[in-house]
Design brief:
The chain contains 9 helices and 14 strands. By secondary structure, the chain is of the alpha/beta class. It binds fe (ii) ion.
Length: 256
Amino acid sequence: MARLEIHQFPCLDDNYGVLVHEPESGITASIDAPDADDVAAALQEKGWKLTHILTTHHHHDHTGGNLELKAASGCTIVGPKGEAAKVPGIDKSVGEGDTFALGPLQVHVLETPGHTAGAVTYWMPAQGVAFAGDTLFAMGCGRVFEGTMEQMWRSLRKLMDLPPATRVYCGHEYTLANARFALKIDPENLALRDRLAACEKLRAEGKPTLPTRIDIELATNPFLRVADPAIRKHLGLEDAPDWKVFAEIRERKNRG
Ligand SMILES: [Fe+2]
């Protein structure tokens, strides 16, 4: 199995940049490109040469570095076919069920619309990692800007079905605010309380709280726990379909 080195680093205000490197082939992919200078500095620090950018969605804080990095490296930019026209420098569009090779790495594409209309998640099953952009966060999820609540719920449902040990890289460090909100929705959840304390300690030490893992999200993320009877009772939505419970939690989070 191809070995993978992953380097995560802060970018802009609260974004994360992620570089994925396979040493045998020399492949180095940047997951999104929030800022050309930050990505270039991370490449230089690691001594890696950029070969690909995998764009999760078109927002500027995920694609702002595309053109400059492509001009400097000649890298190939892969992005969602549902919003290809909005991804600067895109060379290859991908959609649901597509797989493609990055050297010896096999990448599977899941369409996860909702935050944007065409957002995708890149999943490398053999390595047990997924790159979810702004669809899933630690104890949270992205705002539903372009899709419908029902669509976003279906996207999260897809991620919930990934193998439980899958490590998930996300676009932003929103963890503490998410956890504090999550406790309002799911106050009796001891795993959530423990996780908030652990994440507060990490942040106090200046460390990232990401990547996360699917099983950890299933236990602590209220947006994924809409079937939980205590959460439903708390919201007064005992008999609602899952997506409506999701929508209610999302709307409460939007209201702050
Ligand atoms: Fe975004």
